[in-house]
Amino acid sequence: MAPREQWTSKIGFILAAAGSAIGLGAIWKFPYMAGTNGGSVFVLLFIISTIAIGLPILLAEFVVGRMGQADAVTSLKRLAKGKNWFFLGWLGFAFAFIVLSFYSVVGGWILSYLVRALALNLNVADHSILFESITANPVEILIAQAVFMLLTIWIVQGGIKAGIERASRWMMPLLFIFFIILAIRSLTLEGAMEGVRFLFIPDWSLLTGETFILALGQAFFSLSVGVTGMMTYASYLPKEERLGSSALNVTILNIIISILAGLVIFPAVFALGHSPAEGPGLIFIVLPAIFGQIPFGNVFMIVFFILMLFATLTSSISMLEIVVSTGIRAKYDRRKRAAWVFGILIFIIGIPSALSFGVLSEVNIFGGTIFDFADLITSRIGMPFGALLISLFAGFVLTKTQTSDELDMHPKLTSLWRFLIRFAAPVAILIIFGTWVFEVIN
User: Fold this and answer.
1) CB-based burial, 255-280: b 16+ in 10 Å, e otherwise
2) 184-188 own/partner pairs: CB under 8 Å, 24+ apart
3) How far apart are CA 205 and CA 47, in angstroms?
């Protein structure tokens, strides 16, 4: 039987975990969620939720994963013998499956746009019509989704060292550098400060219960907590590495990239007279139009979509890794076959989401498309529910001695973390989730 791999270094682990956390959550979803939910109010709630709730739960996943030294199901069985907490691992497996099924659709959109940008074929009069034509074309969108899934499978089947860590080591630094360049260019546009104000000066009249749950869901989505992804990554971490600093680094990187994404998009949106409330198509409709109106716009557009592809891949490989590691359990020699089998199945499951902007656009589930429904049951329901269970497991099933030994932090910090994970995080999740359900019902 093949031995279980480990990360070769702490920086490799942090970059891979940060890549999982950042991805489309920060670059695609954060800007359009902020744009449609109050701008700076949403941003403030997102930062608070990320630090006060997301970070403790991220650290809880790190603790459980490294203690278990296995896939999520096996780890939970080892740490809670005779109890049924292992079902949380299977929930993570299912939610990761669904997340990647619609995530890969967006990855396909990015590939389609990147190919057009490289062919200098994005200079059109109306980018909303172009976006609709691309997403409604079943042949193009399915081919693009399939290519994206092939890239994801190819990286994951290579394993931790040769696949995931190697890809993250060069994709993440490039992503960060590209973002700084694009943010500087956006901020130098005339009228850009209106977008900065939208991003940083709160309008409290836009504060609602739904904004709370969406900000919390975004914190979970962007940190990849609640689906056992970080638990899985931490299981490959050597015992001598410190978990607290790793979790803090991942969280800070996530917030920085999210804010940078806002600084790339909103100053340019306002400078050129577009609406920030374009929804999921924001970066595909508004940004190409913006790039078309500035010097060297096509170069910046190519850079942006390359960056988007990097970010999407770093997240998609973490979702597939959850599925593969849970599926093979301790049979590590089956990784390659499992990556291909599960990857192809996820592609098939994602076909309805891919077609929900075209031939299946008339299919309505709870007021939205199939794509919207997949997003709903993961980021608004599945991830908060999974995060709640993870916090309860780490706070009440694991003993204080176990978690203290694993964390190796100052006793006061460990006590604060235990309070947050046992009481603050669960109560906040339940209150915010309950508020959202109440608003939906009424």
Assistant:
1) bebbbbbbbbbbbbbbbbebebebeb
2) 185/294, 185/300, 186/263, 186/264, 186/265, 186/267, 186/268, 186/271, 187/263, 187/267
3) 19
How many domains are there within the chain? 1
CATH of the domain at 432: 1.10.4160.10
Joined together, the tokens standing for residue 33 give: 């969620």
272: CB partners within 8 A, 6+ apart: 189, 191, 289, 290, 293
Confidence band, pLDDT 50/70/90 cuts, at residue 284: confident
Tokens read off for 313: 């891949």
CB 58 within 8 A of CB 255: no
4 found inside a domain: no
At 439 the pLDDT is 64
Q: Considering only CA atoms, which of 258, 214, 223, 256 is closest in space to residue 58?
A: 223
- According to the model, what pLDDT value does residue 1 have? 44
For residue 330, give the amino acid letter. A
Per the domain annotation, does 305 fall within a domain?
Answer: yes
1 within some domain:
no
In a domain, 5, yes or no: no
Answer with the residue of higher pLDDT: 221 or 105: 105
Q: Which domain holds residue 15?
A: 10-441
- Band (pLDDT 50/70/90 cuts) for residue 306 is confident
